[in-house]
Amino acid sequence: MIEVQNLSKFYGAKPAVDGVSFHVRRGDILGFLGPNGAGKSTTMKMITGFLRPTSGTAKVGGVDVAVDPVAVKRQVGYLPESAPAYAEMTVVEFLEFVAESRGFRGADRAAPVQRALRLTHLESVRHQTIETLSKGYKQRVGFAQALLHDPAVLILDEPTDGLDPNQKNEVRALIKELAQEKAVILSTHILEEVEAICTRIILISEGRVVVDETPAEFQARQPGARLDEIFATLTRSDV
Amino acid sequence: MLQFFPVFKREFLGYFRSPVAYVFLVVFLMAAVGLAFFLGRFFDAGQASLQSFFLFHPWLFLFLIPAVGMRLWSEEKRTGTIELLFTLPLTTLDAVIGKYLAAWAFLCTAIALTFPMALTVGYLGDPDWGIILASYLGSMLMAGSYLGICSLTSALTKNQVISFVLSVIGCLILVFLGWSIFSELLETYLPVFLADLLANFSFITHFEPFTKGIIDLSDVVFFLSLTGFTLFLNVVVLER
Question: Quick one: which of A199, A215, B76, B205 has the most CB atoms within 10 Å?
Fold first, then answer.
């Protein structure tokens, strides 16, 4: 579903992402790991068409994002980091706006909005303005917005950030459930999360892919070690 | 389908979801009417016309339209919602047009709400309604051009204060070029043809005929092309 070839982004002479390549198939949940500033978010922003790559290509469902960004955006559900939303709108108004922008007009928009509210358990706050919600609820609004159109590809930048342990488990279960017929990329700092739900790990450090393997292979690098110890070994050059 | 419409709708209703819209409408109406009464001597003139009212619009817009336009894009950048907006299946042009038209519709609402002024002269005398309608048309077109500049400067920064100052300066230049006091000053330093050419880029030069009831195609084209040009630059800046 997602093919990334030699993707690079330079700010001046400094590379933020430097020649990243990988594939994600339907049913995959790809865990994006790496220290802060390693290039995880930048890579995601290039796949979603928000940022232009300096070089290389990103294709979603066979469509090059540089050639037809709107077609890519139609297939992708994206949760940006810290889940931005129009704070003065109520949850329902916001989701209806997203639904309309995604082509659900008039009576057609009720069903996807209802479904998104149900999946993310937002029914109780549906008429509250987003600025009055707690961080956990705001994160769920961002999540609802991303899966509203039942996209084939989900790109989630730190989806469990700011949630309490119960909510984290709930979101993980939801991602797992949805991922059966989707391709999912999620970035995270939480290594247990990768272990719990991801089918593959990509570790990025200084804009390059350092590791691309299954969680089991990752664990096998240092049998018996905790994941954060392996992480520390692999990214030591950043410290 | 009209892809800009959801953006337009969200943005336009957004003004009324916060107190900003109501504060702006009150300030705008008080300032517009106040200037006509106290500076323009609306009553003392003893004429059934709104000329002393429309005379101040270029100056009023100078501060009030940047106040509306400054948040258009800088707010989206500051709160990060721009990332959301540009990962929806819209082109940059859709987003620019949607937001611009929403702000313009809001300004037109504000201008239209000055209708009691027209009713007053209609009650007190026998005004030329053609001139009044032409003036309203000119005022709305001019507001559109101010807004184009403000939308552009707002896309340049995520800081609303910088955006406001840049907009005021941009609009100020375009007002000053046609202000009689300033253009006479220019004529003493520059050849007359050059001073005239510069004056041709001014809001005032192109707005005045409307207030006399003259709808000249060249004035309409001036406002529309200035708006179109600033919105084109706006798209370029956002896609950079």
Answer: B76
Q: Is some CB atom of chain B closer than 8 A to the CB atom of A78?
A: yes
Helix (H, G, I), strand (E, B) or coil at A181: helix
Question: 10 Å Cβ neighbour count for A66?
Answer: 15
Whether the CB-CB separation of B82 and A45 falls below 8 Å is answered with no
Distance CA B59, CA A197 (A): 61
Q: Determine contact: B19 vs chain A, CB below 8 A.
A: no
Query: Can you tell me the distance from the alpha carbon of A7 to that of B5, in angstroms, rounded to the nearest whole number?
Result: 34
Report the distance separating Cα A95 and Cα A113, nearest Å. Answer: 6
Structure token digits, residue A211: 């590791």
Rounded distance between C-alpha atoms, residue A110 and residue B27, angstroms: 39
Please check whether residue A47 is in contact with residue A4, taking contact to mean a CB–CB distance below 8 angstroms. yes
Those residues whose C-beta lies under 8 Å from the C-beta of residue A170, and which sit 6 or more positions away, are A121
Domains of chain A: 2-238 (3.40.50.300)
- ipTM for the assembly: 0.89
Q: How far apart are CA A58 and CA A62, in angstroms?
A: 9
Quick check: A85 and B90 CB within 8 A? Answer: no
Instruction: Provide CB contacts within 8 A for A143, sequence distance 6+.
Output: A79, A83, A120, A156, A159, A171, A174
Structure tokens at A212: 């691309």
Instruction: Single out the residue of B61, B99, B72, B93 nearest to residue B163, CA to CA.
Output: B72
pLDDT by residue, tens only, chain B of 240 residues: 578 999 999 999 999 988 888 999 999 999 999 988 888 777 777 777 888 889 899 999 999 999 999 989 999 999 999 999 999 999 999 999 999 999 999 999 999 999 998 998 889 888 899 999 999 999 999 999 999 999 999 999 889 899 999 999 999 988 888 777 777 787 788 787 877 788 888 888 899 999 998 999 999 999 999 999 999 999 999 987
Strand, coil or helix: A89? coil
Count of domains forming chain B: 1
Q: What is the pLDDT of residue B223?
A: 94
- CB-based contact B87 A78, cutoff 8 Å: yes
Q: How confident is the model at residue A239 (pLDDT cuts 50, 70, 90)?
A: very low
**Residue A47 — φ and ψ, nearest 5°?**
-65, -35
What single-letter DSSP state applies at residue A31? E
Which of A87, A98, A129 lies nearest to residue B88, judging by beta carbons? Answer: A98
